[in-house]
Amino acid sequence: MRKLIPLLSLALASAAFAQKFDGLAATPPMGWNTWNTFACDISEALIKETAEAMIASGMRDAGYVYVVLDDCWMVKERDPDGDLVGDPAKFPSGMKALGDFLHGKGLKFGIYNCAGTKTCAGYPGGRGHEYQDARLYASWGVDYLKYDWCSTGTANAQETYKTMRDALHAAGRPIIFSMCEWGTAEPWKWAADVAHLWRTTGDIIDCYDCITGWSTGWKVILDKQVELAKYAGPDHWNDPDMMEVGNEGLTFAESRAHFSLWCMLAAPLIAGNDVRKMTSEIRALLTNREAIAIDQDPLGKQGTRFYIGGGREIWTKELSNGEWAVCMLNTGDAPADLAIEWERMHYFMRGQYSVSDIWKGAAAGDTKKPLTVRLDSHDVVLLRLKPLK
Ligand code: GLA
Description:
This protein has 11 helices and 18 strands.
């Protein structure tokens, strides 16, 4: 028995570490990530210029605070102590200095690695180095870790991600844990106590609904979120991938619809455009407080697809204080007059509501009579409903 007691306390102590940091993502995380626009072409100058642009554009103050370095920030080998090394050609001041710079600007520092032996771009992965890497990230002031799933062989996703969760917790610095397992092992069913967010699909690219092998447009990803709403909530979000808003392959309407629907999904809002060069229309889109408030609503409910047909989709999202968000998408190839028949929603909405049109910034009547709007191809109307007194 005497021998058992220390063993028992050890087991209890490690059980106490086996948890994620709570409360870091009460609402979906917001920020910017290098990958969608820059892939491996990243540098300290890019990060610093982007940080300045996020401040000047109002993005930081609208809530986009995590600046995340995706793949390719390292050199190809660990150092003799087994530590990861930031590429000195890309980040001459070092990773700790970069974290300090971001913190000094009121931003947070995000970084990427992979659960396998190598990252997707072939840099050293985290497998077998979880605790060592977690301590290193903590020492650099990292606030957010995106953890990918390349080169994992036959590894079990649940066990592998739990190991990294425990390593981060043991390192002691609160770090948002963003799983990038692409939905293969259905993480929505088991990852609520493992990560703050988990990818649900393969990679996004900047088109409406194209499919290029592993990568697809945002509409294809949207369709895969339909059944997942019930799994999301504060501190455990479905992640339909970083945004392509403002990127070349989308029309302005498609960017606006993409952003609106990511807000309806309570998706993490991680911008993926070149914020140093975005147009004023894209800046206004990404920083629209009313749209962001739908995404960030404290109730933390992911929206669902209420209706599909007649060249349109209608999505609804329950908000706090008895309010609702409603978004209608024109899925057709031409402009169309499309209607929302409010009475069809009366079995889950109670009473009548006033309606405001977020992109017009104007009132749009109430739910006593149907709303018909003219929408361009792949454009949306995004509405907020408040109970009428
Ligand atoms: C995977 C991820 C992407 C990106 C790349 C980097 O494809 O899903 O989001 O991180 O790896 O190599």
